[in-house]
Design brief:
There is one protein chain. This protein is mainly alpha-helical. The chain has 2 domains: about 80 residues, no CATH class; about 60 residues. About 85% of the residues lie in helices and about 0% in strands. The chain is built from 6 helices and no strands. It is globular and about 55 Å long. The chain starts with a helix and ends with a helix. About 15% of the residues are buried.
């Protein structure tokens, strides 16, 4: 469950820096986050983890707590560096390009960490719970893709 929340929040953060966008785009991003959270809450209810599963998953997440915290910190620093570079030197500057590379590096690192944690959590779930989780992930990805496509119109 928390893995999916991390994925959802990561997706929301990766779409755009909300505070710098026009109001309709910001509202669209907030709406997307609400939809994703709703999907995750539904999954939580449908998956009905046993106490043993909850304990195991909490242990897995706890074992990665410092890595997760470092990812959030690195992502925040990378976004701030990008914003600062663009404000100081413009979007075509060498500083902005370097900051964009920093964002890409943190996104890559975050994706690999999520994949690593997911491979540890997946065996804890029953085959039915794994199917529910995959279906939820597929719906969330479709929501994100649809929202991005609408934005590009």
């Amino acid at each position: 469950m928390k893995k999916f929340l991390i994925i959802a929040l990561t997706a929301a953060v990766c779409i755009t820096p909300i505070h710098s966008q026009p109001e309709n785009v910001a509202e669209g991003a907030r709406g997307l986050v609400r939809e994703v959270v709703r999907e995750l809450l539904d999954l939580r209810k449908e998956a009905a983890l046993s106490e043993d599963q909850r304990t195991q998953i909490k242990g897995i997440l706890k074992s990665h707590k410092s890595e997760i915290a470092a990812q959030f910190k690195a992502g925040s620093a990378a976004r701030h560096a990008m914003q600062d570079a663009v404000e100081a030197k413009g979007p075509e500057s060498a500083q902005a390009l370097k900051a964009a590379d920093g964002i890409a590096a943190t996104a890559r690192s975050r994706a690999l960490l999520i994949a690593k944690i997911a491979t540890e959590i997946r065996p804890v779930l029953t085959p039915e719970q794994q199917k529910l989780a995959k279906a939820t992930r597929d719906r969330i990805e479709e929501m994100i893709d649809t929202r991005i496509a609408k934005f590009a119109e």
